[in-house]
Amino acid sequence: MREAEATGRSVTLKVWRGDPAGGELVSYEVPAQEGMVILDAVLWIQAHVDADLAVRWNCKAAKCGSCSAEINGFPRLMCKSRLDSFQGDITVTPMHTFPVIRDLVTDVSWNYEVNKQIPPFTPSEEDLNDAEPWRMQQEDVQRLTEFRKCIECFLCQDVCHVLRNHEQKDQYYGPRFMIRTATLEMHPKDSLDRRPMLKHKAGLGMCNITKCCYEVCPEHINITDNAIIPLKERVADEYFDPVRWAARKLTGGDKRRRRPVRGMEDAPDRR
């Protein structure tokens, strides 16, 4: 930082300081250096001004998802946001959707509780007992690879209006877990039918496809077009297609390969 300090160049960061009881924005003058990102500036404050400033980070390479925050009101990774991309004072606040622990650190444990409710990958007995290597079409591999790029920064959860503005965490799993479910539901070797869970417990119908989750994703995963909309189509085919309904009535049931998630076969729609 010596070169930056010698030139007298600096930037004002307004960082939210507080805890669950409340807090305020505190201004800091940070010496700017070429190539600095917001996380660099926050760590400079921690090292030189306020050693007790709480911030969560790990890799500083946009791969761990730890340093999520809101910069000028927009959910971003601090390690991927360059100082020179902003004009004037820069405001750094914790993610709005999750409870504050202290300063820029929020409690995201709700997400892990949701993840526990999604049945894991479950191959059929036939596939489990098959001695031959499993084979998949390259198209299926590429589709699932996109979803696997998620770094669980939870920025998509933070920006989702159902969770952020309406606080309906008990009604909707959120975009991150639509991606997680799509990874399983679209896997050709998975044997579970998660459509009842998506319609009822996961609240897939709550999403009105604003694509705000896609806009904040640091991995550029097309959450809406490639995961949520295809899942909506699968649920609509199952529950609202009159032709399929008539066919099931005539044939006495659905002959599809996948079996429904236990406990969700006849789950009532809570909305």
TrEMBL record:
GO terms for molecular function: 2 iron, 2 sulfur cluster binding; 4 iron, 4 sulfur cluster binding; electron transfer activity; metal ion binding; oxidoreductase activity. GO terms for cellular component: plasma membrane. Pfam families: Fer2_3, Fer4_8. Pathway: Carbohydrate metabolism; tricarboxylic acid cycle. Residues 9-98 form the 2Fe-2S ferredoxin-type domain. Residues 262-271 have a biased composition (Basic and acidic residues). Its cofactor is [3Fe-4S] cluster; [2Fe-2S] cluster; [4Fe-4S] cluster. Residues 251-271 are annotated as: Disordered. Keywords: 2Fe-2S, 4Fe-4S, Iron, Iron-sulfur, Metal-binding, Oxidoreductase. One of its GO terms (biological process) is respiratory electron transport chain. InterPro entries: 2Fe-2S_ferredoxin-like_sf (IPR036010), 2Fe-2S_ferredoxin-type (IPR001041), 2Fe2S_fd_BS (IPR006058), 4Fe4S_Fe-S-bd (IPR017896), Beta-grasp_dom_sf (IPR012675), Helical_ferredxn (IPR009051), SDH/FRD_Iron-Sulfur (IPR050573), Succ_DH/fum_Rdtase_Fe-S (IPR004489). Transmembrane segments: none annotated. Belongs to the succinate dehydrogenase/fumarate reductase iron-sulfur protein family. This is Succinate dehydrogenase/fumarate reductase iron-sulfur subunit. It comes from Candidatus Dormiibacter inghamiae. The lineage of its organism: Bacteria, Bacillati, Candidatus Dormiibacterota, Candidatus Dormibacteria, Candidatus Dormibacterales.
